[in-house]
């Protein structure tokens, strides 16, 4: 009997740990989403501004001091071909994903709304495929890191969804 109670406590402690990780992941997504939204609004303010012109204006003092500055040499090849339309696209992209996926769905997942789980999972899968597609062209290791985080969050949400769905169906069958 004591062994059975001990096993139940171990399972409960694992559940508590996982629940903490799950909540932390959802709060991370909400924070990350709010940052995306703020950054999107900042970009929208300058949507008609040429990104390379804005960069050079912000970095003018650095260019005057050292035209061969490491940051200038690293960033220049990436922004030289960008236009104001690119800035607007990135802003709306961040706004959409920040509001829908990161904030709205994460809040509803924390509120244990079952419909939000599969919706978030589908959006994460679509986003991961897009990130992999972009990686083929950019070879960005930052993108790989973001993709890995998204995959981990996918499995955390999927695991919690299974738990919530099981709990929901147990409640229904008891009625």
**Helix count, DSSP H or I runs of 4 or more residues:** 7
Separation of the first and last Cα atoms: 30 Å
What share of the residues does DSSP label as strand, in percent?
under 5%
Low-pLDDT residue intervals, each spanning 5 or more residues: 7-12
Tell me the count of domains. 1
Question: Please, could you describe this protein's structure?
Answer:
The chain is mostly helical. The chain has one domain (14-174). The protein contains seven helices and no strands. It has helices at 2-45, 51-58, 60-65, 70-79, 84-110, 116-138, 141-174.
Key structural traits:
175 residues; mainly alpha; 7 helices; 87% helix
Topology, please?
Elements: H1 2-45, H2 51-58, H3 60-65, H4 70-79, H5 84-110, H6 116-138, H7 141-174
Helix pairs in contact: 1-5, 1-7, 5-6, 6-7
Task: Give a brief rundown of this model.
The chain has seven helices and no strands. By secondary structure, it is mostly helical.
């Amino acid at each position: 009997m004591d062994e059975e109670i001990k096993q139940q406590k171990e399972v409960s402690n694992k559940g508590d740990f996982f629940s903490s990780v799950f909540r932390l992941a959802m709060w991370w997504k909400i924070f990350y989403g709010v940052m995306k939204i703020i950054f999107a609004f900042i970009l929208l303010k300058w949507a008609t501004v040429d990104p390379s012109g804005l960069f050079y204006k912000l970095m003018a003092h650095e260019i005057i001091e050292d035209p061969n500055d490491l940051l200038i040499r690293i960033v220049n090849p990436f922004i030289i071909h960008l236009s104001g339309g690119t800035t607007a696209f990135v802003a709306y992209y961040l706004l959409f994903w920040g509001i829908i996926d990161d904030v709205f769905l994460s809040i509803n997942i924390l509120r244990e709304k079952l419909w939000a789980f599969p919706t978030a999972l589908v959006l994460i899968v679509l986003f991961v495929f897009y990130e992999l597609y972009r990686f083929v062209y950019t070879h960005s290791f930052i993108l790989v890191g973001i993709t890995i985080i998204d995959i981990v969050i996918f499995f955390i949400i999927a695991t919690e969804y299974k738990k919530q769905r099981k709990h929901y169906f147990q409640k229904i069958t008891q009625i």
